[in-house]
Write a structure and sequence with these properties.
The structure is a homodimer. By secondary structure, the first copy, chain A, is of the alpha/beta class. Chain A has two domains: about 240 residues, Aldehyde Dehydrogenase, Chain A, domain 1 (3-Layer(aba) Sandwich); about 180 residues, Aldehyde Dehydrogenase, Chain A, domain 2 (3-Layer(aba) Sandwich). Chain A contains 14 helices and 17 strands. The longest helix of chain A has 24 residues. Chain A starts with a helix and ends in a 5-residue tail after the last strand. The mean pLDDT of chain A is about 95. Chains A and B meet through helix 4, strand 1, strand 2, strand 14 and strand 15 of A and helix 4, strand 1, strand 2, strand 16 and strand 17 of B.
Chain lengths: ~500, ~500
């Protein structure tokens, strides 16, 4: 057995043993743990900020913002656990008089799946990495977490992992509640997903990476769920009246969104769909002006830059694609300027290769001859994390068929905005039909993410005092429950 | 293209077109539709009852009971839709003053996936077949349904399918809202699961059948979820004090449960685990007496009987297995008597073939030398729909580790009861860790089953009047919603 296999086995055995204890700690203890992780991360102070900047080329403001978001995510899950209703406690009391058969007492709640393997994302070194949303949601649900750190920011990962381990110790939890593997190859990830103690996987990254894990998980003797958020081209559809009324404003918003963080967001608007109607030439003009006025930003790493150069050049090489506008690359600067290319609707519909994501500050403008073609472009799309519509208030109701079609393709539908900037809140949906995510029924951002790593268990005819507190008659945690089909906080007489 | 391919394509095209309309009908119209299906089924009257009896060999009382359950399931989903809170409407209102960035308005609810293919179960010709739980839950969620009828009861299937189509017409819904394929080969099912218009699958049946569909669905260009409930041996663990106090009573309950409906239930207790403690010999004696006193019942079909004979004989042929007690097969009767065999715990743990389900009135008694061995038997089990513990009230708290281990293996945990008889209620969990079900996070019985066929969609910054009613400020449907992290029925100012 290799050293790596030994390490993975040890981490997974520890996680298995830790699960026996961690799944049974009180909600209060679990939420304390999450808050403690946040505190330990804050304590890392400038050392963490500087490490992230060095490893990712991100500007300090973004790093500080992402740190705040990371800690706030942990707090939000702690609040969720404290409030308690998330576990969907559902009670149907017995009716021994019922004919022809007495009705048993059945009580259900959500319980953790077991050790969850999390793959840190490359583009969110903090908020979707070691102590990011996947980790926070899995821990909140009562599952031990084993993180496979992203090789692009190993020092950041290690710092955060040590902070979590400190919180584990401080809260008196078993050491195996959190595990960390900092390995730059694929092998450790494969071993983790295949390990019999692993009960679920969280992943944010490329389609190829995500699907490789989905496949591995499906081939196990006991298949396990993989929540892979795999990227998206986030179509933006601009309707006629909006284009006519606001072309300059829309162009400015879009270019800023395409260029944000060097385009390294999964919600980057990589596709703009519009018609050659009044306002179109003004829009192209404004778009060109905006793009040419920006020098862009530096990408995460030479490997991300290499992929971007490769994929964008591939796009430019297709005869159907015309470069519309390009930012200026200043001499000596490592900044990557934004690019907008264009293609006709018919070419776009016919060529699946034009639907590929180009991760970076790139967007493809699809030009439609008429509304029928615009609908056909939408129908040709694969599943997306987001879709955006620009429309005047009067034209939105007139385009019901189109809006309905767009809704089938996405997890979040925006009106007159930009998809970048994913709010962390209960109503957020970050996921979408395949291939945006491997399971459209769940979100990876917002407190709903906890539902990925839990399953319902029903207790039939258990005595009151041996039931989990959430299901006891007197409702000691004062949580919302469905009792005999009615939502209530009341105790049961 | 074969006639079958043509038929499947036509059904799926109709379903695709119907979805555009059906997904948008009001909740009231959807619940009316479900109630109408129930009414149309009741109208089939004695013709349906007689057809089921002829095709399944089930006694009339069971058929009438199952008919009642089928109609009541439809009504329960209609009630759920009328009540409305099931869609998890979640609203985070905007905060334009927030620093550093304004907070957008985000509103989320559950929307249907699209056309769902349902495979009727062999062992529930009504309640888990054409208008059964899978169909009811998928239709309730707003999805068109295409049923592949079970070849063992084609006339029953057709009658019920016609009743549903009548309800479709009566409610003015598009004909493609419901489709039915009555084919006795595998080909049609494969075509249905592979069809690009199919967005999800419900299945109840064997592990082999379920896994074949899971594999097909995973190999699609856009993988879709398959909810396969694939059977279980439903372990019953009898602890020492319970065995000593109640051995005769437990034996009587168990034999009745093993023998119920000729053992043709997915919750049939196919495994009994206990120790050789005081009460053991009395238990075996009582078990033997009970088993020998019954002649059993007739199985569904010659094919089910053939499989039962094959699989039980295989079990008896293993040198580790001893037949403990056997009912008497009366001459001329087609009834299949129950059989209890026994095996040592160490043999059971070592031989995966002894963990196989024998679908029919068969149960295997696993005899443990001590508590440690009993725990090892439990840990050796695969995922199960149910697990049952017999324990005195005082010994239950003393066996926490064991109960915790059992809970990891099942979807429903019963105390001092029998797993057969699955209550249709909100708190029911019918599902479990793999291979009991393909996805442990969902149930196929009870109103929770609707969650399998819906996904969340978030609307960002949409104007009030263009949002679905469930998300509008004034809460016109008066449903429970999470507004700014608080559960409420109030409207938003």
């Amino acid at each position: 057995m290799s050293a790596l296999e030994n390490e993975v086995n040890k981490v997974m055995e520890n996680a298995f043993e830790a699960f026996k204890i961690y799944k049974k700690v009180s909600a209060k203890k679990r939420s304390d743990f999450l808050r403690n992780i946040g505190e330990e991360i804050i304590k890392l102070g400038d050392e963490l900020i500087e490490t992230v900047i060095t490893e990712t080329n991100l500007p300090e403001a973004r790093v500080r913002g992402e740190l705040g978001r990371t800690v706030s995510q942990l707090t939000k899950f702690a609040d969720l656990i404290d409030e308690g209703s998330w576990c969907e406690a559902t009670i149907d009391v017995s009716d021994l008089e019922r004919e022809p058969l007495p009705k048993p007492d059945i009580r259900k709640l959500l319980v953790p799946l077991g050790p969850i393997v999390v793959f840190g994302a490359g583009n969110f070194p903090l908020a979707f990495s070691v102590a990011g949303g996947d980790t926070a949601s899995a821990l909140a649900g009562g599952n031990p977490v084993i993180v496979k750190g992203h090789p692009a920011h190993p020092k950041t990962g290690l710092l955060v992992a040590l902070a979590i381990s400190k919180a584990v110790e401080k809260c008196g939890l078993p050491a195996g509640t959190f595990g960390f593997i900092n390995d730059d190859g694929y092998k450790s990830g494969q071993l983790l997903v295949k390990h019999p103690n692993t009960k679920g996987v969280g992943f944010t990254g490329s389609l190829n990476g995500g699907m490789a894990l989905v496949k591995l998980a499906a081939e196990r003797e006991d298949p396990i769920p993989v929540f892979a958020e795999m990227g998206s081209i986030n179509p933006v559809v601009i309707l006629e009246e909006a284009l006519k009324e606001d072309c300059a404003d829309i162009a400015a918003k879009l270019v800023a969104s395409v260029n944000l963080g060097a385009g390294q967001f999964c919600t980057n608007p990589g596709l703009v769909i519009t018609g050659k109607t009044a306002g179109y030439s003004g829009f192209v003009e404004a778009l060109t002006k905006e793009v040419e006025a920006t020098g862009g930003a530096q990408m995460f790493s030479t490997s991300v830059l290499r992929n971007y150069t490769l994929n964008s050049n591939k796009m430019f090489s297709y005869s159907e694609v015309t470069i519309l506008a390009q930012g200026t690359k200043e001499t000596g600067s490592e900044n990557v300027p934004p690019v907008i290319a264009s293609v006709s609707a018919s070419d776009f519909i016919q060529n699946p290769r034009l639907h590929q994501e180009v991760f970076g500050p790139f967007s493809l403008l699809v030009v439609c001859d008429n509304k029928k073609e615009l609908l056909a472009v939408v129908n040709s799309l694969k599943g997306q994390l987001t879709a955006t519509v620009y429309a005047s208030e009067t034209e939105l109701p007139k385009n019901e068929e189109l809006i309905d079609a767009i809704l089938e393709k996405c997890g979040r539908l925006l009106l007159n905005g930009v998809p970048t900037g994913v709010e962390v809140c209960a109503a957020m949906q970050h996921g979408g039909p395949f291939p945006a995510a491997s399971d459209s029924r769940f979100t990876s951002v917002g407190v709903g993410a906890i539902k990925r790593f839990v399953r319902p268990v029903a207790f039939q005819d258990f005595p009151e005092h041996l039931l989990p507190m959430e299901l006891q008659n007197r409702n000691p945690l004062k949580i919302w429950r469905v009792v005999n089909n009615t939502l209530t906080k009341e105790s049961i007489e």
